[in-house]
Amino acid sequence: MGNKLRKFELIEPVMAPDARAARRAVAAPLFPKETMAADWNAVLQAILTAWRARVWVLVSKGYIPLTQRWVAANCLPATFLTATATTAGNKNWFCNYRDVCPWCYMRWVSGVYRAAAEVTGRTEGGRALRMMRTVHLSYGAGPAGLTAALDTLQREARMALRANQAGPDAPGAAVGGVWSVMVDPAVVRKDGKATTKGTPFWRLRARALLVVPGDRMVGTLRGWDPPQVLGAPGSEEFTEVLAGHFRYPAGLVRGNPSRAAECLQVRKEYPGYLAGTVGRLRGAATAGG
Ligand SMILES: [Zn+2]
Asked: Fewer CB within 10 Å: N-end or C-end of the chain?
């Protein structure tokens, strides 16, 4: 592989809030906190190394076409300003395998962040984000089980949004939100804890994050986390919540390669997978409601 790999050298990390959220969403599940705090270049190189190792595996499993392997391996790092020290490939490629490529995933999270920030920025009377409890579910191995599980999770996330949007006068009604359904091919036990042996189960997660006007914190849905009132978009809290909401499924890079490939195949065929952004759902967000 050698000289076809582009060498990316750190100039500086991008510190815009959406970039920080995206970087944290990917780095936090992959590296211990100390690594992240100590050395940005180490984080950049570690993500590069982990991703490139996985690219070859995904090619061998047929998820990434052979012709795309260098594009994927040389995908331009996101959230870091870099210099390239080699001449191999002068273009700045995006591979667009955002389901697994940490850089494309970061670019996607940045976009979602900006969409969510816009919704929260437009609510009147302060802003609040309400997070749905996180649903962790484990299912038996196999594509059929995973598809069924995804259906269930997606339905649950959608229903939560819909329930919260019922009527502009309903207390605690949301004016917008983001829901996500994430699949991590990490091997887990039935109780959801990570394990290296035993029966493999998918780790699945559904979350809905709603934007409600700040003065409407009454009314709650069963099984929901207590509402959190967050500061303005761009605040540390907001960044942290978004990063947590869209945490990168580390098992895609660290877990069993064949399970990752199986997981990706199902995801590819699954319509509407991953996440939806509900923008300004009602005029209420801006029209004094
Ligand atoms: Zn990419």
From this structure: N
